[in-house]
Specification:
3 helices; 156 residues
């Protein structure tokens, strides 16, 4: 009977050891899975960062391209205004020469301004005018907003 008891104790001990081994293996597997998940997360975060950087760079390139095209268009408009001024000077009848000359001078100076200053210069000049005259600028903004709202609202 003592051997039966001893066999039961040994069986229980073996069963406990197997359970302990299984728990240790599960712990090791969980630790390994955690490391793999951490590595995968780092990889995904790195790739997402790379993708965001790439998208940001391409957006910057596109904005730069659009800005360059806008500056080129502004310069072209300035050149067109100067050309129109020359045509007005050449084709104005003699009795309207002073009026034609004034219009041509205005167009020519406007065209020169657009070519030299571009959109950046226009923006800076508008900013300076608003800083020097904030109340009239505010009133103009309200008036323009009212007109835009009026033009875009639907009449029922």
């Amino acid at each position: 009977m003592a051997t039966v008891q001893k066999d039961k104790v040994d069986s229980r001990q073996q069963f406990a050891n197997m359970g302990h081994n299984i728990a240790e293996d599960a712990k090791d597997m969980a630790h390994e899975a955690g490391n793999k998940a951490k590595d995968a997360g780092s990889f995904v975060a790195q790739k997402a960062g790379d993708a965001a950087s790439f998208v940001g760079q391409k957006a910057g390139d596109a904005a730069s391209y659009v800005g360059k095209k806008a500056e080129d268009a502004t310069s072209s408009v300035g050149e067109g205004m100067k050309s129109l001024a020359g045509s007005i000077r050449e084709n104005t009848p003699s009795m309207l020469s002073s009026a034609g000359s004034a219009v041509a001078d205005t167009l020519e100076s406007g065209g020169r301004y657009l070519q030299e200053q571009g959109l950046k210069g226009i923006g800076e000049d508008i900013t300076n005018v608003i800083r020097r005259n904030p109340i009239p600028a505010l009133l103009c903004g309200i008036g323009i907003g009212f007109l835009v709202a009026r033009a875009t609202s639907s009449r029922s």
